[in-house]
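Board work, copied verbatim: SUEL-type lectin domain-containing protein
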Amino acid sequence: MASALRRCPVFHCLLLLLFCFHCSQGFSRAALPFGLVRRELSCEGYAIDLRCPGSDVIMIETANYGRTDDKICDADPFQMENVQCYLPDAYKIISQR
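↓ predict structure ↓
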């Protein structure tokens, strides 16, 4: 992923909006209470350990790799100048893992 962002000289982060659901339930996003949706954030150099209880599986709702503001995963001021840095294929890449 980092090679696709070479033009963005910033400290990157990965932001995921995800939820867990039971395979046997038949999937309906509309039926899930918002409390089951989790937001996970990992700054560059740190891993995320994503797990669901029991036999539930993870469904990725959205994913962003890059930087869209100067507050999350902040580093030195020079690296915060470009906040329009993202990887358009982040959702596709993360969903396949």
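Confidence is low (pLDDT under 50) at residues 1-6.
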